[in-house]
Structures are given as C-alpha cells and as structure tokens.
Write a structure and sequence with these properties.
2 copies of one chain form a homodimer. Chain A has about 250 residues and is an alpha+beta fold. The first copy, chain A, contains 9 helices and 10 strands. A 6-stranded antiparallel sheet of chain A has the order 4-5-6-9-8-7. In chain A, strands 1-2 form a two-stranded antiparallel sheet. In chain A, a hairpin with a 5-residue loop joins strand 8 and strand 9. In chain A, helix 1 crosses helix 3 and helix 2 packs across helix 3. The longest helix of chain A has 14 residues. Chain A is elongated and about 65 Å long. The structure holds a DNA duplex (30 and 30 nucleotides).
DNA sequence: GCTACCTTTCACAAAAACCAGTAAGGTCGC
DNA sequence: GCGACCTTACTGGTTTTTGTGAAAGGTAGC
C-alpha cells in the first residue's frame, strides 16, 4: 500500500531496460559516444543504473535491434556508423529530387506507388484543403525505400478540381514529378507551410516502416499554396524518427 | 516452437493495450475524432482490436493519463479539447517573445533559469560551435512552464569569447532578451539553421517534462550565425511531443 | 598460455499483461 | 420510470515480460 505523493514523487514508468536504453541512445545520438567508440562495460553500466547484468543486456539488445551498436563477445559493445539522414525542405519537395539526392550519397533509393484513389482525407488534411466534412480528394500514396528498406510514407492529397482528368488520377508514376505537372496545369507552388510533430507510430506505420522498440515518427503536414493562396496539394510525410533529421533555414 | 519468417511476418512488439492506444491516439490527433466526439464503446473496441474488456480499458487509461479523453461512467469516453501549441521559428527565438505570445492566448507562461555554467557541451553542439573535443562553452539552461506545467527544456550555449565579461555569465534573467543583448555586443543574428528530430526521451527529460507513457520529444538544434557566418549561439530545445507542433514557411 | 576483462547465455522468482466472465452502477432516450 | 447501453471495477487463471544471480565462453595484452 504505497501512497504516491502528488507533485514530488514523479517517476518514469517505463521498464528499467527501456530507461537504460533511452539514456544510452541519447549519448549516442548526441555524439557523446561517437561511432567506433566503446560503450561502458556491462559491469560499469550495472553500477551506473543500479541494475542487474541481464537487465543491462536487455537494454543493449534494444540498441542492437536499432542497429545503433554491435557487440562482440569478449570484446566490447561499440557504436556503429549511424549518420542520420538530414533532409532540407527543398530536397523534400519531390520524390524524384529525393532519389537523385540519395544517389549522390551512394545509396539506392526508390519510391513505390502504393495506391491512387479518391478518398475522404483525415480531418487535418481536409481542413487544409478547405473541404466540407464529407468532401473527398485524390490521394496518391507512396512509400520511399532506401536500400530497399522502408524509410518514409508519403501521402499526397490533391483537390479533385485540379486532379480531374489529369495524369494525377492514373495509377502510375508521374514523369518529371508532380510539381512540374502541377506547374504545367497552371498551379505552380507559391508558398509552402510545413507543420511538424513527433508522434507515436500507429500499428500501420509501425509495420510499414519496420520500426523497432518504441521509435517515434516524425510527421510533416505540408500545405502547398498556388496562385491566390488556394491549396494545390497537401502532403503528409511520416518518417522513422531515428533515420531522419529535418533542416530548416531562415 | 514458432518459426518466424524473415520478411513476411513482421509484428508490432508493443503490448496490445499500447497498440490500441496508438491507433486511437492517431484518430484523435488527426482530427478523425474531433474534440467533444465520443470514442467507440468498449464493446465495439473489443471487437475492432480483438482484445478483452480489461485490455481496452487499459488502453483508454493511457489516453486519459495523457489528458486526451475523459470517461464518465455510464455515458461515453469523449475527446477533450487538446489543440496543440503551434510554434513558428520567429516566435521561438526568444523566451520573452514566447511569454508575450502565450499571454495573448490567455495562458500563463514563464521561464525559469535552471543553471548558468561553463560546461563541455554535447558533441553535436560542440561541432556547431567549432570547438575542440575538450572545449567549453557557456550554458544557460532554462525550463519553460505553461500554466505552471513544464513544457520545454531550453539549453543555450554561447562561445566563451562572446559571453566573457557580459551579463550572459550572470545567473539571472537577461532584460530584453538575449538576442537584444547579443546585438548590442555586435553579434546580431544573420542566419539561423534548425535541425529537428524526434527522440525517445531520456530519463532526465521524462521527469523534467512530466511525460506520460511513451510520449516522444521534439528536439530542435538551432545554430544562430552572426557576421561572417560564425556561430553566435547554439540552442537545444526539447519539447513534449504531444504538446507542440512546429511550423515553417518557405 | 595465462589472466583480466568483457559479452553472452541460462535458470528462476516476481510482476505484469492478457483473457474470459461477472457485476455494480451511471446515463440517456423513450 | 423503464430498459438499453454504457463505463468502471473485480475475480481467477494462464502466459509473457521484467528482473536477479551465477555460469559459460570469447578477446586481447602480456
């Protein structure tokens, strides 16, 4: 019968090995533990976190599954090469720019068109498109693969008034990219607004992005405005948190 | 003795009630379930997720702890008012701008100076400041409170060459804000670069921000460049993921 | 080859997650 | 006020996870 005090006693409810992993992960991601460096030994970590051998091991197991560290029996657990993919909004704007960008870094990237359909978009997209509650839009759903690993989910929504009768409605890749096509149609982008948030992945996202443990996702809701500031395209991009970093300059 | 197939069988390893909470949370955050709306009944959720009564309740319990929903016995579990705080980079630049911004929205915000000290900054900050591995910088660590709830951790790092002998080194609030002071010192901001990532909170962050369940955090590493493009200030901002949304326009 | 240090693995107690079912009691439309 | 539907709470029982401690076995320097 423990009596929790209101303010003073605030505890982390995650399991011990998750907490240990969280702190070590931060040391790695912040660069405190650089790639190639060794983590403190199990004995040392036992001390630092006041945990048992196996619990520390389980924490390390999590980091291994995230491909952050490798352990060799007898030697030490070392930090792997893990540079996060930095992506600036300009590079984001089309999947194609993306692909060429990736090629420069020696990685193989490709996008797969998952679905093209007229759907009732989620409420936040709907309001960005100025649609009524029962309004529909054209959805082009893609998934980006880097070295054949799923890396990002991209859902592009277009107003039907714009998409109707164009190549956008066809279930195949747009040659030259959608921005070029939209520009041809007289809807070139004048202004873009990104809204970024960190989310806990849904089951769908978890499976599609092949996430491990409790990785968060980075969600970007992009509204592209055309002439007269009317919305031309709304894109929802969901990336695995540990793979990406967004870069904005101003 | 189950034989896991390599590619096809990829499963979500989170506990069932966490997965249920994740999907419901997405319905709420995307606006699918608007504030005031009722969630499906326990019986319906049991069906939808193929779970038992108690498991569904546990999922709902998580959402209640996040203040996303309220349940009244007999009636239904309804979505609470939860508008996320949207914050644009301009409004971010000083804690003071922040405070006046908050006042406009009828909320009470204040910042507490936690610490002022010369420290060896984390590696990513260090490299942004062009410091050697053993270099130090001045840290001004603050925490932002909104309605007396911790909302954001702000760590500002300044090169010693700039901070030395100025009010920055004193353990008290800067009148007029640090940007104004820096400008006076001849280090006005010419260019800023933000790098945004989603992270799993460390134990420190978890406790300081009073996080619940497995909420991620939104981390912004801002590098402010002055004349000659030399770094004048590096700020690390860590916000609770469910409270914030970043907005960038270009 | 020896030794110190390290990771890894195994056996086992305690805790929790989960299920099925039941029951108490609140809310709302009729 | 009645009944349908709802949230909440509790029981008992199985399975999985979390945690501990000790032992097995690899690595590297001497």
């Amino acid at each position: 019968m423990t009596v929790p005090r209101a303010e003073t006693e605030y505890v982390d409810r995650r399991s011990l090995h998750e907490r240990i992993a969280a702190d070590l992960r931060d040391d790695i991601m912040s660069g405190e533990l650089a790639p190639g460096a060794s983590l403190p030994s199990t004995a040392r970590l036992k001390e630092r976190f006041d945990a048992s051998n196996a619990t520390v091991q389980k924490a390390l197991q999590l980091l291994k599954e995230e491909d952050l560290v490798v352990g060799r029996a007898g030697a030490s657990v070392t930090v792997r090469e893990h540079r996060r993919r930095t992506v600036a909004p300009a590079a984001l704007s089309t999947a194609d720019r993306w692909l060429t960008e990736a090629a420069k870094h020696g990685t193989h990237a490709r996008s797969v068109l998952r679905d093209v359909a007229e759907v009732r978009p989620p409420a936040d997209v709907r309001s960005a498109l100025n649609l009524p509650v029962d309004g529909t839009a054209l959805l082009r759903s893609q998934i980006l693969l880097i070295d054949d690993e799923p890396a990002e989910l991209v859902d592009c929504y277009y107003p039907l008034a714009i998409a109707e009768g164009t190549a956008l409605m066809e279930r195949r890749r747009i040659k030259g990219g959608t921005p070029a096509l939209l520009a041809e149609l007289g809807h070139s982008a004048r202004r873009s607004v990104d809204r970024i948030s960190a989310e806990i992945p849904t089951q769908e996202q978890y499976r599609s992005l092949r996430l491990t443990s409790s990785t968060p996702v980075l969600r970007t809701l992009r509204v592209v405005h055309g002439a007269g500031d009317s919305p031309v395209e709304v894109t929802v991009m969901v990336k695995a948190g540990h793979l990406y970093e967004l870069r904005y300059e101003f």
